[in-house]
Amino acid sequence: MEVIQNYIGGELMPAKSGATLENIEPAKGKIYGTIPDSDATDVQSAVEAAEAAFPAWSKTPREERSRLMLKVAELIDQNLDRLAAAESKDNGKPLKLAKRVDIPRASANFRFFATAILHESSDFHQTDEEAINMTLRSPLGVVGCISPWNLPLYLFTWKIAPAIAAGNTVVAKPSEVTPMTAYLLSELCIEAGLPKGVLNIVHGLGPKVGQAMSEHPKIKAISFTGGTATGKQIAATAAPMFKKLSLELGGKNPNIIFADCDFDKALATTVHSSFANQGQICLCGSRIFIERAIYDKFKTAFIEKVKSLKVGPPEAEDTKVGAVVSEPHMNKVLSYIELAKEEGGTILFGGERVVLEGDFQSGYYIQPTIIEGLSYDCRTNQEEIFGPVVTLTPFDSEEEVLIMANTSQYGLSSTIWTTDLNRANRVAKQIQAGIVWVNTWLFRDLRTPFGGVKNSGVGREGGWAALDFFTEKKNVCIKL
Ligand code: NAD
């Protein structure tokens, strides 16, 4: 049994109450360890440790903060195999994906912000009269970072890295569904020599640990990634306390394929944008709109490709679709497939749970599922399923597809496939989303603003936007 511990004030420790939660391996549907079932008293200890560390950390020269963060990045790289195996076991994702994407991105996050702070500068405004304005930037103090289960270490470090780079100290909570790599990160931070209390990791349930963080008066800001309902709850708690909030929430992203697209590229990428990580990426394009002239051709070719995706154990070389993250999540996804049928949808492929053999027979596997024949405004096309399920819908004009794409409470990302760049530009401007990809998907440049509109969230992460979020600006006007 793998025992996970909290990381508070530089020490690894159980929850003060001694209570634990089970940690389940989704590929096998079996318990393989425990995590601390922490509560407000553990959060209090973490806040105290972070407060104690803040004066020294915020005054630590940026070169030294950068050096320590680069050391963490280096240790993540050195432990690539171990971290990828842990991530895959904890989450159910294919091992190859964890090795290629999740873990390299975690070290890239540390490296990116460790070097960004070396280039940071403040604004200076010269005025016509004899005065100057200089804008000072200072860290906020103790900040909170709360992350989800779909890209565990990747998203956890995406928040922690800019926070500590900017000189804050952090209380962080990974998802209780996938806590393992956050725990391994705490070991690596100790090895790297990160000063005690700069990063504190409290494991446990959202309504206990996460809620205690949102409520804590000493936590100045909350950076949250997760579901929209949770985001609302955090905002309701933290907004009246005037905390800074960055909320990266759910999505139901449109993938718009025009007849003049590069067909093979659009097809191959759409397979990926539909089913990568079992469809459990907030950026997956779950609503696929195809111009009618190529609808049948695309549908036939898409089904053919999806049929060849192997559903299997995460560590198998040829597995393309691993396990979904948990039994409740599997049941939720399957219930949406039933809903789609009730709403008149036709299952073109998939639609069933997959039962593998041997050790994996109790794992949580679902066939990649393609559905057509649904209206764009039905529940299946409006609610976030967050699994390996996509719908296909034909369209006849730009105007029509924009209405269908924008009929959503969400506005995280979208993808447009066309070789007509004027059209791409026209549609991109009218799409209600924070991120638009044209002829590509999930092409990430960490300098760009990342975030959603509507119920997909508030605020932007990435590049200077993240460093801005984790700092307070003060303008000093000097009359000369
Ligand atoms: P979730 O909202 O259930 O949980 C996210 C985190 O919030 C977890 O750590 C959880 O323990 C914690 N939490 C739960 N209740 C809380 C509370 N009352 N107060 C404070 N914290 C609380 O989300 P999830 O199921 O882990 O993740 C899936 C969701 O995340 C999907 O909706 C997906 O779209 C979204 N997501 C968004 C992005 C993005 O960048 N916009 C990225 C990845 C995932």
Automatic annotation (TrEMBL):
<feature type="active site">
    <location>
        <position position="248"/>
    </location>
</feature>
<dbReference type="InterPro" id="IPR016163">
    <property type="entry name" value="Ald_DH_C"/>
</dbReference>
<dbReference type="InterPro" id="IPR016160">
    <property type="entry name" value="Ald_DH_CS_CYS"/>
</dbReference>
<dbReference type="InterPro" id="IPR016161">
    <property type="entry name" value="Ald_DH/histidinol_DH"/>
</dbReference>
<feature type="domain" description="Aldehyde dehydrogenase">
    <location>
        <begin position="17"/>
        <end position="476"/>
    </location>
</feature>
<dbReference type="InterPro" id="IPR016162">
    <property type="entry name" value="Ald_DH_N"/>
</dbReference>
<protein>
    <submittedName>
        <fullName>Aminomuconate-semialdehyde/2-hydroxymuconate-6-semialdehyde dehydrogenase</fullName>
    </submittedName>
</protein>
<dbReference type="Pfam" id="PF00171">
    <property type="entry name" value="Aldedh"/>
</dbReference>
<keyword id="KW-0560">Oxidoreductase</keyword>
<dbReference type="GO" id="GO:0016620">
    <property type="term" value="F:oxidoreductase activity, acting on the aldehyde or oxo group of donors, NAD or NADP as acceptor"/>
</dbReference>
<keyword id="KW-0520">NAD</keyword>
<dbReference type="InterPro" id="IPR029510">
    <property type="entry name" value="Ald_DH_CS_GLU"/>
</dbReference>
<dbReference type="InterPro" id="IPR015590">
    <property type="entry name" value="Aldehyde_DH_dom"/>
</dbReference>
<comment type="similarity">
    <text>Belongs to the aldehyde dehydrogenase family.</text>
</comment>
